[in-house]
Design a protein that fits this description.
It comes from Candidatus Allofournierella pullicola. Keywords: Membrane, Transmembrane, Transmembrane helix. GO terms for molecular function: hydrolase activity. This protein is about 50% helix and about 15% strand. By secondary structure, it is α/β, with parallel strands linked by helices. Strands 1-2-4-3-5-6-9-12-10-11 form a ten-stranded mixed sheet, with helices on both faces. A two-stranded antiparallel ribbon has the order 7-8. The protein has a two-stranded antiparallel ribbon with strand order 13-14. The relative contact order is 0.11. β1 and β2 form a beta hairpin. It has helices at about 10-35, 85-95, 135-145, 160-175, 180-190, 205-210, 215-230, 285-290, 330-335, 355-370, 390-420, 430-435, 445-465, 485-510, 515-520, 525-555, 570-595, 605-630, 645-665, 670-685, 695-700; strands spanning about 40-50, 55-60, 70-75, 100-105, 150-160, 235-240, 250-255, 260, 265-275, 300-305, 310-320, 340-345, 560, 565.
Length: about 700
């Protein structure tokens, strides 16, 4: 359509207007789902517990006042990401009336590192896998909210978030039962001694037998304080994509001088992917069965009651068929913090936070353990929202369309800017019209290069996914969490393969006296044009970031789909992004040169673009598809896709921009520079530091 052509000023303006409309309309639609059609209020909150900001989102029903007492759930993400990936889980809980705090852990996203965390770890001894990461601080923040019922607070986290929340639960709940605590009061405050058998008896009965009236009154006051504190500890914890090795096994504690073993005093659940090989044996581990006081593997999706004193466990029934409304034993188990459950879903580790079944399990677990779903479960007037009613993935789809609108607007914007006098030097399209000086790509050569490119993409993603974290390298110069090395590795492998292919065809073309791939690349445009291309690409990225700021301001939405996200960054992160830009630019120049070497002039432009985008996309997608089929046929994954799903979307996006920006600029510089900036933005914004990074003067000076 000529009216929407990039080759005319009016066409560019119309395309830009359409892209801006797509961003606004679909972000608004996404927000309607996020807020459950305006019934949920969402606030961006920041709080400081120990000299470092924690960034979070707070969800609660519209119309909430300080007279309400609502159950609350703290939600957090896994390694190398921010609260954005668990936003769907937060939304589904909020739709059911829960107060939800969705948290970015210390060092992730906009959250800072304190000098010392909850364990007292700092720069000299920080361990990313052995820290609450601000989740205990987040739990204590929720307790300060007047509309939260302090006796009904839950917590859930995915992957490393499950580790962080486990550490928080250890600090908050401990392993002593309420009766253990009361017996220790008798032992420590009243010098009472007990046998191992006696510590299993009721503390109040023991006190009545041994204390006089004054002592009994004092004991009862101490017991009341202890009981109030105990009842306001974390009530329920759900670990997603984790095995709770620091919380699930029995621990040795002292009761009246005797060493005994206890489970953590919290209602505990697990949701594990069937293809998450690190945790699939959880139900049959010796430590698991020992903590359940059984010698047989656990049944899935079945409520258990654990009794540490009697050293027994009892199964009560399926999570979807057994409810505290009818089952008094489950109701009592939840009240006593003795309920346990393990669920498995047919998914990989990375799918846990992008999964209908897992979201269903999450809302059902907290419905039962916190006795709430659109109202009190004990209230006959309450009409619970079915746990299978999950809609957040539609919101993700709307965010994705808005993201495509943002990326799409870069093309007409680039064309409009190159029409200005200042950036006119960046427009080298006249060079592309000199067909005599450009390589001629026939059908056979086109197919051969396409097949080689497909193979390079397949091998590159396969080889990158064989790298093993968390033992991938960490450098202060590139201080991001290990799982983003997969994307860098993929680009490095592709660039290496592309370089080999370019050398081969350069030699063949040179020998035959034909224009070489370097002729198509048009690299020799001069220093000033290159610098202006850099500035132009920076303006394009800035425009994308500005559109993000607009939709965040209006709708509290961002650009994302599953693992791929373009979100806001701290000012200091742009310096980190610059370092990645420097690393990525040479790779993307090589890849862009090969991509645009194959441009056909004897077929429609749309068909040429489609084939160009499809080839590497099919290579990456084929690797994923084989992996998927092998897993679902009962085999072992050929490689680890946990941190690479974003490539399924980023590869076609960057390839499309490579071809279209090349067509409108006449050189590989603008597409390579723009893609390097975009990849750096998405990498740095959507992850966290790999290890402790102290706050800086820049961090302290700027608002964000």
């Amino acid at each position: 359509m000529k009216s929407l052509s990039l080759h005319s000023e009016q066409g560019c303006k119309r395309l830009l207007a359409i892209c801006l409309a797509v961003i606004l309309v679909f972000s608004c639609a996404a927000h309607l789902l996020t807020t459950d059609w305006g019934s949920v209020k969402i606030e961006r909150v920041a709080f400081d517990a120990r000299g470092a900001k924690i960034d979070a989102e707070l969800y609660y029903p519209v119309g909430t006042t300080d007279e309400d007492k609502l159950p609350a759930v703290v939600v957090t993400h896994g390694a190398g990401c921010t609260f954005g990936v668990t936003r769907g889980i937060a939304e589904e809980l909020a739709r059911r009336g829960f107060v939800v705090l969705n948290v970015s852990a210390y060092g992730s996203g906009l959250s800072e590192f304190p000098e010392r965390d909850e364990y007292g770890m700092g720069e000299e001894n920080y361990n990313a896998r052995e820290t609450p990461g601000g989740l205990w601080d987040a739990l204590n923040f929720v307790r300060t909210l007047k509309f939260v019922d302090p006796e009904r607070i839950g917590m859930t986290g995915h992957s490393q978030g499950s580790r962080r929340t486990s550490h928080a639960a250890q600090l908050d709940c401990g392993y002593l039962t309420l009766n253990d605590i009361l017996i220790n009061i008798l032992y420590e405050q009243f010098d009472q001694s007990f046998t191992e058998d006696e510590i299993t008896l009721d503390a109040y009965d023991l006190a009545a037998e041994r204390l006089n009236a004054d002592q009994m009154a004092f004991f009862e006051s101490l017991a009341a304080e202890a009981t109030e504190h105990y009842n306001t500890r974390l009530r329920a914890q759900l670990l997603i994509g984790g095995d709770g090795t620091m919380i699930s096994p029995l621990q040795t504690v002292e009761v009246a001088g005797h060493e005994v073993q206890r489970n953590c005093q919290v209602n505990l659940g697990f949701v594990i992917g069937e293809y998450d090989t690190s945790y699939t044996d959880y139900v049959s581990r010796e430590t698991t069965m020992e903590s359940y006081y059984t010698d047989t593997p656990l049944e899935q999706e079945t409520w258990y009651v654990i009794d540490d004193t009697a050293k027994t466990s009892t199964s009560l029934g399926s999570i979807f068929d057994t409810s505290i409304e009818e089952n008094e034993a489950l109701q009592q188990a939840v009240a006593n913090r003795q309920a346990r459950i393990v669920s498995f879903n047919t998914e990989t580790h990375a799918r846990n936070h992008f999964s209908h079944p897992t979201a269903t399990d999450v809302v059902k677990f907290f419905e039962q353990t916190l006795s709430y779903n659109c109202g009190e479960l004990t209230d006959s007037a309450t009409q619970p929202l079915d746990a299978h009613n999950i809609i957040y993935i539609w919101r993700e789809a709307l965010n994705a369309i808005a993201m495509l609108g943002m990326l799409g607007m870069l093309l007409p914007l680039a064309c409009l800017l190159m029409r200005s006098r200042f950036f006119a030097v960046c427009n080298n399209t006249a060079y592309l019209k000199n067909e005599a000086g450009l390589p001629k790509i026939g059908k056979t050569k086109f197919l051969v290069i396409g097949l080689c490119t497909l193979l390079i993409a397949f091998v590159s993603v396969y080889r990158a996914n064989l790298l093993q974290g968390p033992f991938l390298p960490y450098y202060e110069f590139l201080p991001l969490f290990f799982n983003w090395w997969y994307s860098v590795a993929y680009l490095a492998f592709v660039a290496l393969g592309a370089l080999v292919l370019l050398v081969v065809f350069w030699y063949m073309d040179k020998k035959a006296g034909r224009p070489t791939p370097l002729a198509a690349a048009n690299l020799k445009i001069g220093v000033l044009p290159v610098l202006k291309n850099v500035l132009l690409a920076v303006l394009l990225a800035a425009a994308g970031y500005a559109s993000l700021c607009v939709i965040e301001y209006l709708f509290n939405e961002d650009f994302r789909f599953w693992q791929l996200a373009f979100i806001e960054m701290k000012v200091e992160y742009w310096f980190v992004a610059l370092r990645y830009f420097i690393v990525l630019l040479p790779m993307l120049l090589i890849i862009s040169t090969l991509t645009n070497y194959t441009m056909r002039r004897d077929i429609p432009e749309w068909l040429d673009t489609l084939f160009t985008v499809a080839v590497p996309t099919v290579g990456v997608g084929l690797c994923w598809l084989i992996n998927y089929i092998v897993l679902h046929m009962g085999g072992t994954a050929i490689c680890n896709w946990n941190s690479s799903y974003s490539l399924l979307f980023m590869v076609p996006i960057t390839t499309y921009l490579m071809r279209k920006l090349y067509k409108v600029s006449g050189s590989v510089w603008l597409p390579a520079i723009t893609n390097a900036l975009l990849v750096s933005w998405t990498m740095v914004s959507s992850i966290g530091y790999n290890t402790y990074v102290a706050q800086t003067a820049i961090d302290a000076f700027f608002h964000i």
